[in-house]
Amino acid sequence: MIIIPATVIFLGLKFIKISTVDPPIVNQLKTKFSRKIEDSHFQKEYLNKGGIVVVNVWATWCKPCIQEIPTFKKISKENPNIKFVFLSIDEDPEKLKTFLAKNTINDITLQNMEYMDAIKTFLGGNGLLGYSAIPLTFIIKDGKVIDKNVGSIDYTEFTTQLKRLQ
Fold it and tell me: Is the pTM for the entire model greater than 0.85?
């Protein structure tokens, strides 16, 4: 009794072709997100130009992220020589587009979608969606990450920190 079902299963497995080739969508994603940071808008527009760049990693669903946007706008206005950019980890580009249509911030996510893995690697991303916690703010000076702030920023501490770096 056991021999007949085992034989049928064994013979059935001989005719099943197991593909080791990735489906087309996986190949597209690998190509799309495995680009080098050197080719990105982020590299060309912000890292190559020197000076200080502040990158805030955020998401539309992150309440603390949304709450600190006015603080970044204020600090940005007070420090015109520092470049401030936002990088969203939202998985839904339409939700991000809708948010950005209603809220004016310098978000660079959509123009750098093909380079997200490279940017996350440059910023030291790991964990869920590339980062273990958000909001997350990086300070970059002359193309190198020099500081990382996890959680919401404090206006006074952050502006003091930026002034020391200039």
Answer: no
3-state helix, strand, coil split of the chain in percent (to 5) is 50, 15, 35
pLDDT tens across 84-108, in order?
999 999 989 999 999 999 999 999 9
Contact 122, 145 (CB under 8 A): yes
In 3D space, the residue among 37, 55, 50 whose CA is nearest the CA of residue 142 turns out to be 50
Check if the beta carbon of residue 82 is closer than 8 Å to that of residue 163: no
Give the whole-angstrom CA distance, residue 127 versus residue 50: 29
Among residues 101, 129, 123, 149, which one has the least CA distance to residue 47?
123
Report the alpha-carbon distance of residue 91 to residue 74 in Å, rounded: 28
